[in-house]
Amino acid sequence: MNGVKTKICSSCEAYFKCGDISTENKCWYNDFPPIFSLSEGSDCLCPNCFKEACEDKIDAYLETMTAQKAINNKAQFLPKTNLLIEGIDYYLENGNYVFKAWFHLKRGKCCNNNCRHCPYRG
Ligand SMILES: [Zn+2]
Q1: Which residues are close to ligand 1, an ion, with C-beta < 5 A?
Q2: 7 C-alpha to center of ligand 1: Å?
């Protein structure tokens, strides 16, 4: 089974491939947090533009975040994944990983390590 289709990105007009290569090898789309519904048009974005759209959406979500909301935030109920995406879960600073608030929100609680982007402190 090969469900890969070639599509054109609705944002940058680049050609890209999308779809499940096999049952074990899912579309790249599955690597990203499932924060979009297809009705939002995310189906037609290439991996680069989709990642940007993800970052924008997460940034907008984080802007509404307060220490109180963080305790019951929606991100912690997303399917668990060990995959970390640069720009979404972390960024690199002088070769060090700095975890972003999104990463902490997915955990669902404060780890008390004084993380720089801890969303659980007011
Ligand atoms: Zn694109």
Answers
A1: 9, 11-12, 14, 46, 49
A2: 10
The whole-chain average pLDDT of the chain stands at 90
- pTM of the entire structure? 0.84
Predicted confidence band at 71 (pLDDT cuts at 50, 70, 90)? very high
Note whether 36 and 11 are same-domain residues.
yes
88 in the same domain as 29: no
How far apart are the CA of 53 and the centre of ligand 1, in A? 10
Residue 39 — pLDDT band, cuts 50, 70, 90?
Answer: low
Domain range for 76: 66-122
Instruction: State how far the Cα of 47 lies from the Cα of 37, in Å rounded to an integer.
Output: 16
Based on the domain organization, do 113 and 99 belong to the same domain?
A: yes
Ligand 1 mean position, distance from CA 109 (Å) = 34
